[in-house]
Each structure stands twice: as structure tokens, then as C-alpha cells.
Amino acid sequence: MSSIDPTPAYPFGHGLSYTSFDWSDASAVGPAGEAYADPTDPVTWPVDGEARVRVTVRNTGSRSGTEVVQLYLHDPVAQTTRPVTRLVGYARVPLEPGAAADVTFDVPADVTSFTGRSGRRIVEPGAVELRLGRSSGETVAALALRLTGVERQVGHDRELLTSVRIEHLLAVPHSA
Fold first, then answer.
1. Taking the model in full, what pTM does it have?
2. Which of 5, 28, 132, 173 is 20 to 30 A from 11, comparing alpha carbons?
């Protein structure tokens, strides 16, 4: 009897490019404007609020290209089994050589909701991570947040879409 390795050849979201990109200044900002410091001091995120995640992407190659910035949710302590990571937002960022853009995601807490042990859909307080990555297997930054407040039941009117803004920055001359 032989065993077949179920591991995919490439992780979800994997892609190739003819140029290179640098990601920098990844941060999470809570509702009071507090910024991510380190994993031992996570940003607070109310169970009925919104978190903002930002990253700067720069084309460091000599060709035009498009980078896909992917935002994943990781919930390590939920009361029920959850996916290890779940795509909750993405942005296609076309950039000329030397150009950069700030990518900002506004993530409603409802995006973290799941069906709890009671059979109700809830937003549960506790530690979560929002991960910025090139794919599900290539995390560039993991930002620690803490959902705060009491467990909140959400209904059919829950907000499950993460909004994204791309702000192109002034291009820096490219040196080969």
C-alpha cells in the first residue's frame, strides 16, 4: 500500500513575477489609533469594531509588475476548530519600477465570526493575528490583535467584507 502526499505543489495565492517587490512598515491600528508594537502588546480590537492594517509595497525590480497583497486571519484560541488561516482580504497593486503604494485594509470584527458551540454565529473575544502575505504559505508580517468585549452574537446583517484602499506614493528613481 502506498501513501500519496496530499501537500499541494504551491500554496494558495502563489504567483510568479518578472520583477521583485519589497514590503515594509506593516502595522495594525486599533479604533483609538494605537499602533502595533510587538506580539506581547497586541492592538485592541472591539468585538463590534474595526481594525486597520497597513503595509507599503515597492517595486524594486527593473520591470513593471503587479503584486497581490493578501490578508489572512489566524484565530489560535477559538472555542471550536477553525481554519489555520483564512483569506479575509486582498489587493492587486500594479507598480512601475521604483514606485510604491500604501495598502490599507479596514477589517470589521464580524469577519472573525464563526459558529460557536451553542450553534450561534459569534464574535469571540481573544487573541487573533492578521497576517499579510504573498500567499498562504509566505507570510510577510503577522500582526497580533486582541478582540475585546463580551462575546457578541451576529446575525444575517453581519459585515463580512474587508475594504481596501491603495494609495500610490511618489516614485523613487530606480537604479539598476
1. 0.89
2. 28
Domain 25-168 has CATH 3.30.420.40: no
d(CA 122, CA 114): 6
Output the furthest CA–CA distance in the chain (Å, rounded).
Answer: 60
Residue 63 has pLDDT above 80, yes or no: yes
In the chain, domain spans: 25-168
pLDDT band at 32; cut points 50, 70, 90: low
What's the Rg (C-alpha) of the chain? 18
Buried b (16+ CB within 10 A) or exposed e, 93-102: bebebbbbbe
HSE (CB half, 13 Å, CA atoms) of 11? 11
124-127: long-range contacts, CB 8 A cutoff, minimum separation 24:
124/47, 124/78, 124/79, 124/151, 125/47, 125/149, 125/150, 125/151, 126/75, 126/77, 126/78, 127/42, 127/76, 127/77
Compare 105 and 17 and report the one with higher pLDDT: 105
